[in-house]
TrEMBL record:
Organism: Cladophialophora yegresii CBS 114405
Catalysis performed (reactions): an aryl sulfate + H2O = a phenol + sulfate + H(+)
A GO BP entry: phenol-containing compound metabolic process
Signal peptide stretch: 1-15
Protein name: Arylsulfatase
């Protein structure tokens, strides 16, 4: 666990758990009842919206700490592969990277529920696969953007035994939500607190699921702690601008509105720096003045307050599972669609960036065989969740998955030792939105390809922007991503610390490192299936290179530095348009100096 998070968690839990019974609440054995001891497990997935990991939000959720972190495994290196809700959720539910779903925005023509449907995913996604193997499936809360009062029945969402969805344009209005149950007309809940309405619906589905005496999968997806948002119609027709969306801090339940009066955004070294960070539009952001900082601290406090009703859902779910005697046969997953920033790198409240605040997100799991109190360092991503859910349910892994099953039980962790990948593909297209009161804007030059690479002696982020700009951060030495190494002399030395006692540190040039990272991004930016999970195999088909350390062998210098194309764009686009993505073929190393293979998709040809 991060050194800055542990003491805060301990302090917050010590302060809050003591008074749990006084905190006002919201509404609300090894087998499934009536089945044999070998019955399949139930799965409950609590999916928040825009929840941060790097601003300590978990430290203010004592029930998450008590029931999930203490009783399960916390995956501290879990990533979304695209820091925007709808594309991230589609990847999560399909097990595919965004460049393979082609759902890359929140609204048409490049994203939203209509794009999800047009791509064929309403007939091919996780709830349908779970139903095919005998699970009942339930969902309440936010599904996708542009799933709205005008699109909810064109067509209806497929795959759920029971559903009650939040609908646009009121998804993010905490006191004006519209829900749509099964195939019934939408119902307005104006004046009611949306998270509490959702809680009642979730508890009702849980009771339905238990009564059916079948294994079940239940998703509870509140809009918290997303900002409170009102849209104008132009936002949904592809004409969106900063003037067609009105964002304000999230609204907490009345019972929570006065909590955490002294909380402020953590003042890390990357917070509102004296010198700008990043590239493109980020490098031009002004430093925030005190009035701006004060407002953003209030925004932060309201995020924490809005999460309290979610925290109460966690407690109530565990209580109900316990009363029904099925807690020990139920996995509970807790995560979010993407992370969030407030003030880091001078950014106004928002997401959509490749910085750690936006892509490194919470994932906590408890359930049968899950180690209690474990903090995992394995690298996982949202594309791994669909395979993981299917594996736990006893289903077969699909060949078109771009992710792999996350080890959950102790036995799975043992089997995964030395096998799990070191990388996460990061990608983004189109806009970035500055939320809140200050610096309100939409930035359209926010298209980039990125890579997170984490090994025993390296911790790197590399990205290439459609503008031709590059970023490289060494998070071992620069955990807050304040110094872009790409702008330094590429002939300068880069040192990998030794991972073995008595072994010398490894010294290379920055150019040697960049050539490997760029080639890896070349594979990942159009990868499919196994090439997404084992990209080094594409570059080294002989199977003798498994990670960055292996690839840094001197004998590969010519191959990486002079024979590979570099990642670049033909032009900046608002969505995934393959013709604008630049070169997309990589060369494969051959031990014969006369033979280099070229791979494009699944095709191979030899150049002699």
């Amino acid at each position: 666990m991060w050194p800055w998070l542990l003491p805060i968690v301990v302090a917050a839990v010590a302060a809050n758990l003591e008074s749990d019974v006084q905190r006002p609440l919201g509404p609300g054995r090894d087998s499934v009842p009536g089945s044999g001891s070998e019955s399949r497990p139930n799965i409950i997935f609590i999916l928040t919206d825009d929840q941060d990991l790097h601003m300590n939000s978990l430290a203010y959720m004592p029930y998450v700490k008590k029931h999930l972190i203490d009783e399960g495994t916390f995956y501290q290196r879990h990533y979304c592969t695209i820091a925007l809700c709808c594309p991230s959720r589609v990847s999560l539910w399909t097990g595919r990277a965004s460049h393979n779903t082609n759902v890359t925005d929140v609204n048409p023509p490049y994203g939203g529920y209509p794009k999800f449907v047009s791509q064929g995913f309403n007939e091919a996604w996780l709830p349908i696969w779970l139903q095919d193997i005998g699970y009942n499936t339930y969902y309440t809360g936010k599904l996708f953007n542009a799933h709205s009062l005008s699109t909810y029945d064109s067509p209806f969402v497929k795959g759920f035994t029971g559903s009650d969805f939040l609908l646009d344009p009121h998804t993010y209005e905490y006191l004006n939500a519209s829900f749509q149950r099964n195939r019934e007309p939408p119902v307005s809940h104006e004046g009611e607190y949306s998270t509490d309405v959702l809680a009642d619906k979730a508890f009702g589905f849980l009771e339905d699921a238990v009564a059916e005496q079948k294994p079940f999968f239940l998703t509870i997806a509140p809009n918290a702690p997303h900002s409170n948002v009102k849209f104008q119609e132009d936002w949904f027709n592809g004409s969106g601008s900063a003037h067609t969306i009105f964002t304000t801090p999230p609204i907490p339940a009345q019972r929570h509105k006065d909590l955490f009066q002294d909380a402020v955004v953590p003042r890390t070294p990357g917070f509102n720096p004296d010198e700008p960070h990043g590239v493109s539009w980020i490098s031009d952001l002004p430093q925030q003045n005190q009035t701006n900082l004060d407002f953003n601290d209030g925004f932060y406090r309201d995020r924490l307050r809005a999460l309290q009703a979610v925290d109460e859902i966690v407690d109530a779910v565990v209580d109900r599972l316990t009363k029904h005697d099925i807690l020990d046969n139920t996995y509970i997953f807790y995560s979010t669609d993407n992370g969030y920033h407030i003030g880091q790198h001078r950014l106004q409240p928002g997401k959509e960036c490749g910085f750690e605040e936006d892509i490194n997100v919470p994932l906590i799991v408890r359930g049968p065989g899950v180690a209690k109190g474990r903090v995992s360092e394995i690298v996982t991503s949202h594309t791994d969740l669909a395979p993981t859910f299917l594996t736990l349910a006893g289903g077969e892994i699909r060949p078109d998955f771009d992710g792999v099953t996350i080890p959950v039980t102790s036995e799975q962790f043992d089997a995964a030792a030395g096998v799990r990948g070191e990388h996460v593909n990061i990608e983004y297209w189109g806009f970035a939105l500055a939320e809140g009161q200050y610096g309100k804007a939409m930035y359209w030059n926010n298209t980039y390809k990125g890579l997170r690479l984490i090994g025993k002696t390296y911790n790197l982020y590399y990205s290439v922007w459609c503008s031709g700009e590059h970023e490289l951060y060494d998070l071992t030495r620069d955990p807050y991503e304040t110094h872009n190494l790409y702008t330094t002399n590429h002939s300068s030395a880069f040192t990998f610390p030794s991972s073995t006692p008595g072994e010398r540190a490894r010294h290379i040039t920055l150019q040697q490192l960049l050539s490997r990272l760029d080639s890896l991004v070349m594979v990942l930016k159009t990868c499919k299936a196994r090439s997404c999970t084992h990209p080094w195999e594409v570059l080294h088909p002989a199977g003798d290179v498994h990670d960055l350390h292996d690839a840094l062998g001197v004998r590969y210098d010519d191959f990486y530095q002079f024979r590979q194309e570099r990642v670049r764009y033909e032009k900046c686009e608002k969505g995934y348009i393959l013709e604008s993505e630049g070169p997309r073929h990589v060369k494969a190393y051959s031990h014969s100096t006369d033979e280099i293979g070229i791979r494009g998709g699944a095709q191979w040809s030899e150049l002699v």
